[in-house]
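Annotators were shown the component list below and the corresponding predicted structure, then asked to write short factual statements about the assembly.
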Amino acid sequence: MTRYLLSRLGGMLVVMAIVAVLVFILTRAASGDPIAVLLGDQATAEDIARVQKVYGLDRPLPVQFGLWVRELAQGNLGESIFLQRPVTQALWERAEPTALLSLMAIALAALIGVPCGIVSAVFRGKAIDQVFTGFAMLGASIPSFWFGLVLMQIFAVSLGWFPVSGYGEPGASLAARIHCLVLPATVLGVLNSALIIRFTRASMLDVLGEDYVRTARAKGLSENVVVLKHALRNALVPIVTVIGLTVALMIGGAVVTETVFGLPGVGNLVVSAVIRRDYPVIQGALLVVAAIYVIINFLIDLLYTVVDPRVKY
Amino acid sequence: MQLPLILRKLFRRRIVLAAAITLVVVVLVSLFAGPLSGLDPNETAVSQRLSQPSTSHLLGTDELGRDLFARIAFGGRYSLTIALFTAVGSIVVGTLFGLIAGFFRRLDAPVMRVVDAMMSFPDILLAIALVGILGPSMLNVVLALVLVYTPRVARVVRASTLVVRELLFVEAARAVGVSTIRILWRHILPNLMSPILVQASFIFAYAILAEAALSFLGVGVPPEIPTWGTMVAGSQQYAHQALWIVLFPGLAIILTALSLQLLGDGIRDLLDPRLRKSM
Amino acid sequence: MNRLEVRNLSTFFDTDEGLIRSVADVSFNIRAGKTTAIVGESGSGKSVTSLTLMRLLPRTASTQVSGQALFVNRAGQTLDLLTLPEPQMRAIRGNEVAMIFQEPMTSLNPVFTIGEQIAESLRLHKGMDRAAAMAQALRMLELVEIPAAAQRVREYPHQLSGGMRQRVMIALAMACDPTLLIADEPTTALDVTIQAQILALMRRLQAETGMSILFITHNLGVVAHHADDVAVMYAGRIVEAAPVNDLFARPQHPYTQGLLACLPGQQRKRAQTVDGKRRLYAIRGQVSSPLAPPPGCAFEPRCDKAIAACREAMPALRVDQAGGSARCILVPETA
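Structure shown to annotators:
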């Protein structure tokens, strides 16, 4: 087991290293000079050169990369050009709405997706299966921003059940903040349940055709027990996989949803950073997101050992 | 390959047939509806702004009085073109890398590591970052999305290549002295057509959705270009007055993306009957 | 006393390609405490027969079952297994009638321990609590002669070999002390040596508990050593049924005769030569497609003794004086 952990850790580091290089190339390959934008039209060439020096943007690229990696190793993601504060701090301040939103959305997606997928598989071919499968296809075809706008119009503007946008007053309670997240979480959760339904259904169908399910029935167990205990446990590995995948989709989906609902989260931050060419923020956010995704995948792999006793590393 | 027979098998499921017809209709409408109906997507009529769907304006008008149906039809050209080029581009590049990774053992690990790294990002995030760097334009959106979806194609192609590579006829071709390029092109690639086609259909759908999201966020095509995404972006502030301005472009997106995915499913069922058992 | 009397059992599947008569008009009896073997080649309908009796067929609209399966339960009541309401059938499955399957490698749930899987049956049918059920599960594993049972009871199926897993399946089936055990080719997937052990185990358990066994197989050698009564199936029908010694000594139906002639030992006796070399006998031809059965006797296309009348109608089962029966017009009818 330890050998596996170490080799996985090594693999993750390699991936992150490549990510770092890619991110660096990406942001440096940009056209347009953020310093000039920051300082405005009035800036002279000297001013620009001076500020460039401060940010180290005048050194050759490989040197910049080396310096940057050293900073990373120290946990320093640099300083935002526009927000005038460390990137780490900027990300941390905005982490809560994104994290809460993602958690709520994943929970909703799983709560909708897994049961619907199971029912679809058990009643394969019947009307309910067609409905759920159709819903799953539809969910994968609906743009999240559109869905957000429509839901906002119905539930926030017309019915007034939820705030149209924002994250509540600065000192708002947790309950109030969650209330602001209900609509965006619904958008993300419902749309992403589509993939979970498809995978759960496919996985359950595979399992329901297995011999040990027949054995379970031959023991005289009720159909509920056969499906929910014997079949589902075995179907969990792909289901857990797809839920892990959904986390990545959530982070991406959060970007759009935060913009639609005006939430001060990481997604919103990244969008404005891109528009303003705030390299440190873009770099930092990309790295953090990639790292989170890689770690989550690793945790999912570890989860397999719990779910399936045949999996041993 | 008899085309009529294949088409008949593909369309045995009515829903796949409906999806294909819908796509054809969408393409035709976006190409010909404007000129045929005489409606001008750019003709503003401020007095008629934000009017509801009626006989004179099938889907209503937007905030500048432009006919929404004409706008959506016209915008379809841009959205579909961007998505089409994205699909083609990512298929070509992805297949190339997938073939290399699957066929040449020593290149497998490095290529797949890069693929893994690229897939460590959520699609939208990577696309936003790329367009942000390259600058907003139609070409850059296509380039960005191609980069986003290429790893996906590469993975699928690699997996299939690994399987096909082990088939006996490849070894036979090698033994006879067929050059590697020829093996790849004439023997391996044709066997990959089914997963490639399936991927193409789905990526086309994802590209439509992705471009719309990017444009909506303001990091896609420039707002002057009327894709379905920019339309929603430009009109969203009027949504509470006239929901249809946002509703109908969205429905166009949904219709197109859904049809593409159904078609992709149909192709997958057709070309890999074993899969039908679990789907 | 008959533990099970099957009368005119039929199972038809309505498929896109047509109606498949998997089991047609099958009747046989299983005596209490005895072993009845159903012999036939692949596709003869023997497995479908057993699944039909247990009501384990997929419950779709395209499955048509008719006939009766009269089972005498522990209380002495006679129940028709085919028409019992599902909850009552569930109370019988795994309890009074148990089944073991052909593929031990895949018949156990990979994510639960062996002990849990056996205990589940005990808790369901005998109402035992967890501790008692696990203790009984351990005893069952010892009963089927699994070495180091105390350790095995906590292990997972993938940690056991094929032969061991089949023993576990037997333990599972026997856990609630069934009066009828249906064994669908239980040893086909195992090596010959393990096969012998499993069969000996089953005989011992039968002697100890007095249960009946319905043994489904294509292996005549196994039938000769372990069965008391035999029914031969071909193309979904019983073509011959007799006590085991009678069947092997005086096979009536041409198919049975053909099967016995195929045994290598028989070949030596027949000293059949083709081109001066001794060849093994094989029944010529192939089983006809279930979708296009021949008009008369199903075996007629392959039968060396067929006459014109064989093509006209499916012969009825004719009973002879020893109590055996055969579905062939060439068999003289006595009863």
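Statements collected:
1. The longest helix of chain A spans residues 223-261.
2. The mean pLDDT of chain A is 83.
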